[in-house]
Amino acid sequence: MLKDDASILILRFSSLGDVVMATSAARWLRVRRPQARILMATKGAFTPILEGQPDLDGVLPLLQDGVGGLLGRCRAAGVDAVLDLHANLRSRLLGLRLGVPVQRWDVQSLNRRLRVSLPQWRLPEPAPVIQRYTAAAA
Question: Are 84 and 104 in contact (CB under 8 A)?
Answer without folding.
Answer: yes
